[in-house]
Write a structure and sequence with these properties.
Layout: E1 10-16, E2 19-22, H1 31-45, E3 50-56, E4 59-65, E5 80-81, H2 86-99, H3 109-113, H4 126-130, H5 143-147, H6 161-170, H7 185-199, H8 203-212, E6 220-221, E7 233-234, E8 241-242, H9 251-254, E9 257-258, H10 260-271, H11 280-285, E10 291-293, E11 299-301, E12 306-309, E13 314-321, E14 326-332, E15 337-343, H12 353-362
Parallel strand pairs: 1-4
Antiparallel strand pairs: 1-2, 3-4, 3-15, 5-9, 6-9, 7-8, 10-11, 11-12, 12-13, 13-14, 14-15
Helix pairs in contact: 1-12, 2-8, 6-7
GO molecular function: hydrolase activity
EC number: 3.-.-.-
Region (Disordered): 1-32
Length: 364
């Protein structure tokens, strides 16, 4: 799917410090209020590099800016680390494998990762892993101790695939899988390795073949390189540089890095599954609720998204963060709106970025 040109009219505006500067004065008048809201969001985010990219019925409005000087390449064309928002890609991948008949979601993960392991009475299944009901903790036992030497740089890199799988196979849940919800990077990381084992395909290749290539997400990858396309991250002070994120054995939980335009393409496919017949059943499946929790069951989950109510209908969203980036992805079918927001400053106390992005989508 193209990201601009024939399919989209694109309005762009950039901010340099506190004062916005319009880069495309020929934008239609109706773009004005949208651009102003996005510009306010960029300024409120208070980060070195910020991009807010919004699509409404296929018409894209992109605003970029930040507290740092403009990089050599336009901010909207850089790749940003999306952290846990990667789980929306992993959830779609699982849905795709289920709807293609290759998996059911009920497969025990341990059996896929260790074929000689006896079947457990209440095994952790692939469905448990993606819905955070596996009983696994947020991170595996030993993660903090092993990651401590690189805690401020790349702790996940010190916990490769073999350690993730071994920690899972050794883990003894306190509660029966499927009975309690607990957000777990560990669980989704295990899911990625289980999908790779089940299909005989490395997770990176699996994601590329099944999701990235069908959606023409050419600006999306799983690791930084020396191309100059990766936006550098920054610490909580917004100044200190942070190394590029290395997900180690947690690729399925947080390795994706992408351009804002690719993220919008990904979100637009959820709003209009028909644009990708290969993925249409999976794109519809990841919008269906599979779990409700909390007071009044306000917190609704699909296999890929958090879902909250609005006056007009549900909004689907997921956020993510690494040691130097933050991201927010979301969409609303009732208004035909998709929002991809990224910034290059580590999450801090009272950080405005995620709240600003959430409010923008909630407003419709």
């Amino acid at each position: 799917m193209p990201s601009d040109g024939s399919r989209h009219r694109r309005a762009a505006l950039t901010t340099a410090g506190p004062a916005p500067r319009v880069l495309s004065p020929g934008s239609p008048p109706e773009d004005g209020p949208v651009l102003e809201r996005l510009a306010d969001a960029v300024t409120a985010s208070d980060a070195p590099q910020v991009v807010f990219a919004l699509s409404r019925h296929g018409h894209r409005s992109v605003v970029s800016g930040g507290t740092a000087p403009s990089p050599p390449l336009a901010r909207e064309n850089l790749r940003y680390e999306i952290g846990s928002a990667t789980k929306t890609f992993t959830g779609l991948l699982l849905a795709r494998l289920i709807h293609s008949g290759r998996l059911t979601g009920g497969e025990p993960a341990a059996a896929l990762l260790d074929g000689e392991r006896p079947a457990a009475a209440n095994p952790v299944t692939l469905a448990h892993l993606i819905t955070h009901t596996s009983g696994l903790p947020a991170l595996p036992t030993g993660f903090f101790l092993r990651g401590l030497p690189a805690w401020t740089t790349n702790p996940y890199a010190r916990f490769p695939q073999a350690r993730v799988v071994d920690a899972f196979l050794r883990h003894r849940p306190r509660h029966r899988p499927g009975t309690r919800w607990r957000y777990s990077n560990f669980g989704v990381a295990v899911l990625g390795h289980a999908l790779a084992a089940a299909t005989g395909t490395p997770w990176e290749d699996l994601l590329t073949d099944q999701i990235l290539r069908p959606l023409a997400l050419d600006g999306t990858t799983l690791r930084a390189d020396d191309s100059g396309l990766d936006a550098p991250g920054h610490g909580r002070d917004g100044v200190s540089p942070v190394p590029a994120f290395d997900a180690g054995g947690f690729q399925a939980a947080g390795a994706v890095r992408a351009t804002p335009h690719d993220l919008l393409t990904f979100l637009e496919a959820h709003l209009d599954p028909g644009v990708s017949p290969h993925l249409a059943p999976a794109l519809r499946a990841v919008r269906r609720p599979v779990l409700r929790r909390g007071i009044g069951h306000r917190h609704v989950h699909t296999i890929a998204w958090f879902r909250h109510p609005t006056d007009g209908g549900p909004m689907y969203f997921h956020s993510g963060a690494t040691l130097g980036h933050q991201a927010f992805l979301g969409f609303r079918a009732d208004t035909g709106t998709a929002l991809a927001a990224v910034c290059t400053r580590r999450f801090r106390a009272h950080d405005p970025f995620l709240a600003t992005a959430y409010a923008l989508l909630a407003q419709g």
